[in-house]
Amino acid sequence: MDTSTQAQPGAIPHDAALYNEDLAPIPLEKRTWGIYNYASLWVAMSVCIPTYMLASGLIAGGMSWKQAIGTILLGNIIVLIPMILNAHAGTRYGIPFPVFVRASFGVRGANLPAILRALVACGWFGIQTWIGGQAIYAMLVVLWPHAAAIAGGKWICFLLFWLLNMVVVWRGVETIKFLEGIGAPFMLGVGLLLLWYVTRKAGGLGPVLSSPSKFHTTRDFLHFFIPSLTGMVGFWSTVALNIPDFTRYARSQRAQIIGQSLGLPPAMTLYSFIGVAVTSASVVLFGEAIWDPVTLLGRFHQPIVASIALVALLVATLNTNVAANVVSPSNDFSNLNPRRISFRMGGILTGVVGLLMMPWRLLASANSYIFGWLVGYSALLGPIAGIMVADYFLLRRCQLDAAALYQRAGRYSYRNGINWRAVLSFAAGAALALTGLVVPALRWLYDYAWFVGFFASSLLYLVIMPAQRTT
Is the residue at 141 inside a domain? Predict the structure, then answer.
């Protein structure tokens, strides 16, 4: 193992403006996460309402259950590749995402990808918090119908759930590890119980899964499939960047690789199947595809069943929100001013910005959720992932100077702390992907936004960075 991975945080020469305890490398004795921790992390993050809505949105858009499940499985296998690749540096050097990205963008330039990733995470935080608040409100209405008459009831529940998230953030990363470890098996079990209950009400899986695809030609199917696949990749393209925030605690590369491979694709596919089947059952029961599970559960007049299911969804949302949408932006905001912004303060900033992004608008419909939100931000994150992978694996061959990542005058300072070649590569890839929004004839560039940005930026970066082939 590289000796830099074994250095104690306090022993690394550093500039105070680039360093604090939250951004420092994790020492070997504190790297305690094993295969189960990473597998359960992904199970818990996957078992959430946005995953359910991802699958149900495909059904509402016209796919058959086989087409929807196949699309989700393929998208998660694809995104697992950059996930594992970017995780490598976190495990090897014990560093978080905003420090790792300094190698390619520069010690100051790293703020660009870090803040972009943080803003997307804030949007997701707002979405998850809004969904959790609605779940609390729906449960109250089921148990106490008069709650529907309370003025501003939905907003009160929204803010209460926001405060609960802030409490978990304040308690730190080890609380996240504890929640994921005990929560994942429970949440999967309750999800399967919900699937059994709803399909039994609808007459079994046969009638539920018998609905054919609404697409009558291959062209019509591909027109919907391509941006949907991009949306599937975009769903976890956020964590594909900041996965070092978690793998810096890994005992070994084997632990993070096997744990993620066992956790991400199977969990997403299984819980997506639950979303697909339950949404299909809503067509049988109510004559329409209800893609929002909170709305669907509110249709059942079974207080015990609805309450158990809503509590499970609430726990799942809390797990996913803190793990996927707070850890990264907290570190990213801390990277802006390590001396003044701690992990806790970064978490509070995440919560505030998440409120300001008005998540209720992002969830206005299945189309705005998948083709607007997911595909749209993938055009910004795909280029960053491409540059990170190209820089670390192809130019530097996995070799980093850990100490220089914390020094203003080190080898990663480039020009005034910014690697303008990386910034140019990012801008070119993102602009190319977003061109499809303004040029109708090139719409396919936007439909493939993450892929276009990833490959365009990585290729340009490799061409204009010949001098950085060694550290």
Answer: yes
